[in-house]
Amino acid sequence: MPDFLTEILAPGNWPTFVFVAARVGGLMLVAPLWSMTALTQTARAAIVVLLAILLLPLTPRAAVPEQIVQVPVALAMEVLIGLAIGLTAAVIVQGVALAGEVVSLQMGLSLAPALSPMMHEQPSGVGQMQSLLAMVIYLGVGGHLVMIQGLAYSFRLLPPGAPLALETGGGAASGLMGILFQTGLRAAAPVMVALLLTNIAMAILSRAVPQLNTMMVALPLSIGVGLVMMGAALPFMTASIGRWMQTLPDSVASIVQSFRASSVGG
User: Fold this and answer.
1) Domain count, the chain
2) pLDDT, tens digit, 9 for 90 and up, residues 65-115
3) Residue 50's domain spans which residues?
């Protein structure tokens, strides 16, 4: 076995390795790409172990609690930090997917699962398409690597087992839920406004021409207008998602610093 690997896996480093693996595991639960169900549990566990070994030389020695009953709490705090780092990117991807589901509902495409002849397979919707678009941009700007860099940064700023400022950190992590809905609203706004104007126009037209069967016209018209607006807004939405993804390093640094207790040294 190489000397550097023997030094890393020395018994004195085992507690630190466990803490590092716990934080990496928290990231793997929610971070885009790393949390994909396409990755088997065995593959995900192997990635956690590999990343923990690679990050171990960069990590200060863990402060192991003196009481054995405090160890699960300390490990849970490490998982919490990993979850918070992963959520900085997950809220953007899921926000775009949420926008697609809202648009699909307004267009009437949500009837597709109920009318599908394949009961065991749900047809792909707008939300899945937009989620894949956000994932492609996320990978294109190297967001999956930003998550790993954020982990390495967190180990320097927040050594394993160090006290955490849960009040400020929890508040910052809760604020990510607001970013989720904000991202979804911005991504869905063009199509939502176009469909709202279409519904208003149909309401006026039904008053002006009572003989018109608006129920038969409204559904295909809403789907058509929605698809046209989705295509027209796609370049602008792609640019917006790219800008959101480029702010990931600052978001990760902010969320990590929010967990930093004042007593922890720099």
Assistant:
1) 1
2) 777 778 888 899 999 999 999 999 999 999 998 898 888 888 877 666 555
3) 3-258
